[in-house]
Amino acid sequence: MAARSVRIIGNGRAGGAMAAALSEVGWKVHPVLGRSAPAAQVASAAAGADLVLIATPDTAVSEVAAAIEPSVIAVVAHLAGSLGLDAVSMHPRPAALHPLMALPDAAVGARRLLSGGWFAVAGDPLARQAVADLGGRAFEVTDADRAAYHAAAVVASNHLVALLGQAERIASGAGVPFAAFIDLVRATVDNIDELGPAAALTGPAARGDVETIRRHLEAIAPAERAAYEALSAQACRLAGRTESA
Predict the structure, then answer these.
(1) Residue 155 has what DSSP assignment?
(2) For residue 1, pLDDT beyond 70
(3) What is the reported pTM?
(4) Please, is 54 exposed, middle or buried when counting C-beta atoms within 10 Å of its C-beta (0-12, 13-18, 19+)?
(5) Residues 108-120: tens digit of each pLDDT
(6) What residue ranges define each of the domains in the chain, with the CATH number in brackets?
(7) Quick check: 107 pLDDT over 60?
(8) Residue 196: Cβ within 10 Å count
(9) Which helix (H) or strand (E) holds 138?
(10) How far is residue 67's CA from residue 104's CA, in Å, rounded to a whole number?
């Protein structure tokens, strides 16, 4: 069987990572097209390809998809987590394929794409086959659930980074290096993986220690208090407590 071929539109981190990873597992990767590629090249992107992957920012996906001449042979898919099949619905074989992982650059991203990670797929079965070829695990997300799915991904990744940025600021104010907290973070994630969020929860909110929470709020900068209070309330909710900080 001839190797499957892919054309990627978007030469950023995700596009570069997908190009390298699919090439590694035997796909023929056509030259990647950047956002500034000539209109004629974008229009003919599906010619000679089994799969066209749109790896542009979410806001540009529909525009790029509409610029590609439809093909009854090629699958046209996007990598956007927040968008459904409607973004590529003008094509006979639409699909969506979102890697549920952080892709900081093409090289690191390619390694992660090949590490058995999870992908949200929808539409044409070739999207699921691409995940299988990468050694990944696929799950279906409907268009109706796509925004909620992506919100969960943002909370799990982007909001976690913002939260640890807050921990770094508070620790710095106390003269403690942030590196000292990394093992704690890793152990917490391991506990969540093994036990689930509710059973892994520890700390003052979990045990209803309002006095400790009060002292924390007095000790940290005013700009940090709103986030601390909001997350303490969420911890109380997770612990099944009604009281908040």
Answers:
(1) I
(2) no
(3) 0.88
(4) buried
(5) 999 999 999 999 9
(6) 5-141 (3.40.50.720), 147-239 (1.10.1040.20)
(7) yes
(8) 10
(9) strand 137-140
(10) 28
